[in-house]
Design goal:
With 388 residues, the chain is an alpha/beta fold. It has 2 domains: 126 residues, 2-Layer Sandwich (Enolase-like, domain 1), CATH 3.30.390; 241 residues, TIM Barrel, CATH 3.20.20. The protein is 37% helix and 16% strand. Strands 4, 5, 6, 7, 8, 11 and 12 form a 7-stranded mixed beta sheet that branches. The protein is globular and about 60 Å long.
Amino acid sequence: MAGEGAAARSLFVLGVKDSSQISNIEWILYETGRRRPGDQPERRCAVRITGMGGVQGWADLAASTMPDRANTGFIRDVLIGRSTAEHKAVWRQLYEMGIPLGILAGVDIAHWDLLGRLEGRPVHSLLETRRQNVKVCASTGFNLGDPQEYAGYALACKERNIAACKVQPYAGWSPGAGGTTDAGTADRDMAVYKAVRDAAGTDYPCVAGGSREYTFDEALRMGRLLDDLAYKWYESPMPEEDGWRDRYTSLAAQVRTPICAPASHPDSYPARVLWLTAKACDISCMTVLHGGFTACMELASACDAARIPLQLPDLGPDSYPHLQLIAATAPSLIEYLELPSPSREPYLLPGRATPEPVCDEQGRVTIPQTPGMGIELDWKYIFTHRVG
């Protein structure tokens, strides 16, 4: 990975004058009051790192970022007493120790948030700010309804000046999936992609968001249709374990529509660099939950060196770290911020004091200029609804 280090230095130059020793790290699991599928209570985890002098940085992510007792001990042993300026060495040490990537993500994002707050600057400013806003790609979500529901959603996005629409048809419809015998996944999805293109027109950027359920033959048939329909890219049509990488390479060689993958690979950026090398994708794909902000920076550097775009898929309530990375990169590398809705109405999530990002009249999101990751938490709510 020596080449990756060189690429990282050329793309991101960290501008930090001051550092501090880390004195504490804590995790607070809390209930949001919302419900998950199956009527289970939704929980999230706030991670808080304290530097000497009491300055704190934090992250707020899914409940899976809450470590067990063993990992808590390992992480504390690595962090306490370390300089905040050693963020990259800390990430590498925890990654090589096998700390689960979701847990590592929470630690890493809180560490970067602390760096920004110590400097009194947004994280993107520490890396050299390259832009002040970003275009929005609004996602339909899976299983929205019949093809006309999808067509109406895409047309509404176009009429609201949303820059692009990601169309996610039917998940869980493959033969035998979820106990159903409903066959013809690709055919059902084709009807959706056609309806969207008919409604929105060939001039409107549309993305084909896959459910990772196709066979190679289905993926190839769909890819050729998307070539005809002029979709902007084709995301994750097949399973994304490494055993499928050669099939992605073959697919990318046979269709014109750029292939975006792997979104779901369980490893962090090193695995995705191997996909780039194997020409298994034309656009790389990862979220901060695959190891944190540092991991996304490393992949962005590798993509920049290879002249391959990077897409950061929709995370819903976890988009603020993505905005910081986007601000430190060129539009040619990361074109869109993906949001789960084209709504312009600001809204607060439980546990948050900062509204979720929404697009303006021009279909763009403004990059936050506040210190750290740009998000403030409602600590009173979090501690009032703490679990355990």
